[in-house]
Amino acid sequence: MGANKKRKRRRATLDDRHYLAIELLTTVPTPNLDDIARACGVDRRTLYRWRLRKDFDKAWRELGRQKAAARFRRAKRKVYEISRVEDIELILRATKLVG
What's the CA gap between 43 and 86, in Å, rounded? Predict the structure, then answer.
């Protein structure tokens, strides 16, 4: 190996603190970054650096997509559940909009 060759340093894989940060970043409403960093036991600047990592960003986006899809499915199911006439009448009677 030549003297001028630099070795690429392998970055450590994501650990539990990274996944905790990702989980907190994808909650709705999202806590502020200071609170997330404190929960993970790191400085806020470290959390900013983590967000620049490709593997962190990929895991963050994937979990965000999964959670958004789950919220959509729940909302769709709720709309479907109250789309029957009997359910709508029951809701209107309960809210005293219909006698």
Answer: 54
